[in-house]
Automatic annotation (TrEMBL):
Lineage summary: Eukaryota, Metazoa, Ecdysozoa, Arthropoda, Hexapoda
Domain of life according to the entry: Eukaryota
Gene Ontology cellular-component annotations: pole plasm
The protein's Enzyme Commission number: 3.6.4.13
Name of the featured protein: RNA helicase
SUPFAM superfamilies: P-loop containing nucleoside triphosphate hydrolases
Length: 282
């Protein structure tokens, strides 16, 4: 818009960059900044600030005032974290299918490591007659906007995506995040699971873990001073897990359904732990 002279910049006083300083947007932000008046105030907001991002800020921030939160004060309060041990990659899909009824109690986001994996998992779920939506960076912006609008409105309840969704994209009713693949760095982990438990709500994060992922998981635990419990292999979630999901479910549906739908949804939430059957070794 600036290049097409549809947006005048001479009177802009403040530029706010909220969760946008990843590698994919770095050049675009530099381009925007070059069009702004020299006196423009720049405000950078991010849940995490790794060294490479701090170095980037020196290119367009002069004598900045930094307000930094200590690492051990990064709150995961209200988000119960679990991991599911899977011996083989293909067990992840079987486990996800077993969990599907749980996902649709409220709204869930499933994170994959690549766009190709998102497309593959979406196709596999739909072939198995599960209703899911998906989004990644290769999709046209108009299509992504439509998918997000439907998800925020509750028209779709399970979204499969990449880390494009991890930073700065908000849907308040999400209370379950599944890391189908673990992220490749600590900062992305907190961004991902932070999509649940928004604004004081309860949330649950589940991580599908193969043997070679254990060291990554332990590193996350140590770095953020948090605890990630193993999900019981008999398929029984503990009461904390049930209460986290069901409490959010009540908040999510109470204002939008009639009394019979409400009762059915609550019953479904209280019963879901009885229906899980995890893959067994063959």
């Amino acid at each position: 818009m600036i290049r097409r002279k549809k947006l005048r910049t001479r009177n802009i006083k403040t530029l706010v960059i909220d969760e946008m300083l990843n590698k994919g947007l770095k050049e675009q932000i530099y381009d925007v900044y070059r069009f702004l008046p020299p006196a423009t105030q720049v405000i950078l907001i991010s849940a995490t600030l790794p060294n490479e991002i701090l170095e980037m800020t020196s290119n367009f921030m002069r004598d900045p005032i930094r307000i930094l939160v200590k690492r051990d004060e990064l709150t995961l309060e209200g988000i119960k974290q679990f991991f599911v041990a899977v011996e083989r990659e293909e067990w992840k899909f079987d486990t996800l299918c077993d969990l599907y009824d749980t996902l649709t109690i409220t709204q869930a986001v499933i994170f994959c490591s690549t766009k190709r994996k998102v497309d593959w998992l979406t196709e596999k779920m739909r072939e198995s007659n599960f209703t899911v939506s998906s989004m990644h960076g290769d999709m046209p912006q108009k299509e992504r906007d439509t998918i997000m609008k439907e998800f925020r409105a509750g028209q779709t309840r399970v979204l499969i995506t990449t880390d494009i969704w991890a930073r700065g994209i908000d849907a308040q009713q999400v209370s379950l995040v599944i890391n189908y693949d673990l992220p490749n760095n600590r900062e992305l982990y907190i961004h991902r699971i932070g999509r649940s438990g928004r604004f004081g709500r309860k949330g649950v994060a589940m991580n599908f873990i193969k043997t070679d992922d254990i060291c990554i998981l332990r590193d996350v635990e140590q770095y953020y001073s948090t605890q990630i419990d193993e999900m019981p292999m008999n398929g029984k979630f503990n009461l904390v897990f049930e209460h986290q999901i069901c409490a959010q479910s009540i908040l999510s549906i109470a204002c939008s359904v009639d009394s019979q739908q409400f009762e059915n949804s609550i019953y479904k939430g209280l019963q879901f732990s009885e229906s899980l059957n995890y893959p067994r070794k063959k």
